[in-house]
Amino acid sequence: MKIYLDGQFVDEADAKISVFDHGLLYGDGIFEGIRLYQGNVFRLDEHLERLWCSAKAIMLTIPLSRAAMAEAVCETCRRNGLRDGYIRLVVTRGVGDLGLSPWLCPKPSVFIIADTIALYPPEYYTSGLSIVTVPTRRLGAAALPPMVKSLNYLNNILAKIEARQAGALEAIMLNDAGFVAECTGDNVFIVYKGRLLTPSAQQGALRGITRESIFAIARALSLPLEEHELTRYDLWNADECFLTGTGAEVIPVVKLDGREIGDGKPGPVTSRVLAEFRQRVLTEGTRI
Ligand code: PMP
Fold it and tell me: Of 14, 55, 136, 212, which residue is the least packed, with the fewest Cβ within 10 Å?
């Protein structure tokens, strides 16, 4: 496997980052997870836009133009002979001293890994997930804006551990006010009386690229969609529920906190959205 690392393509064994890199010491950096479908980098421009917004929020200067970054992503796929896969694009603060100060890190590092991924076993796409709400709350925007896709994922990891302890593969995370924010690595949608509802970024949701694609799909299928405050009660009493994410794509949820959602089976709206999504991943984006 060839890894892009600061302008070079290096072997996996040589793709190394310093122990003084603040990405490692403090989780000081940002990333994107991107999918490649039959030679199409799905919504690459949108991923790069989010990366640049994350960089601005943490005052990190990405040492490449957006066009050069797009080319580096595509070239990493080409060099690895990939047509389908998962791309991890990371920008770290770079090497500094042992203090926090980012201004003592003169050169951010950029690396790109293109590999394969399978997040959920395929049977869950037909039978649906059973998930739980966990005690760990999603960080508030006044602490660390959840819109920033930072290398600091401990908040989500604690929630993921709690999910596993409860025997679930994903978890609903609430915000400080007790409203549904998102999952540990996915956004959440419900279908209620013909409408699609999802928490807004202000409620603590990452502006997921898959989530935004669902907005476009809803418009195309004339399904009313609203960003809405949601409680656990709303999820328990929804007609359908599904999660979205680059790794997960669109996956139905059929049980939350021991309560069956709807009739306990993946619903028709989820199936329509998933089918439309699977079409779009082949055409929306950038050919490598
Ligand atoms: N929320 C969180 C916390 C995430 O890490 C992710 C990405 N895995 C998502 C939502 C989904 O975003 P996207 O559709 O851009 O992958």
Answer: 14
